[in-house]
Amino acid sequence: MENPETKAFYAGKTVLVTGGGGSIGSELCRQIAALQPKKLVILDIYENNAYDVQQELIRKYGDKLNLEVIIASVRDVERLEHIFRDLRPEIVFHAAAHKHVPLMEHSGVEALKNNVLGTYNVAEMSEKYGVEKFLLISTDKAVNPTNVMGASKRLCEMVIQCRENSKTEFTAVRFGNVLGSNGSVIPLFKRQIEAGGPVTLTDKRIIRYFMTIPEAVQLVMVTCAMAHNGELFVLDMGKPVKILDLAENMIRLSGFTPYKDIDIVEIGLRPGEKLYEELLMKTEELDKTSNDMIFIERDKGLPREEVERKLDLVRQAIETEEQSAVLEVIRKTVPTYHDPAEINGKADQARETAAANE
Question: What's the burial of 112, exposed, middle or buried (CB within 10 Å: 0-12/13-18/19+)?
Answer without folding.
Answer: buried
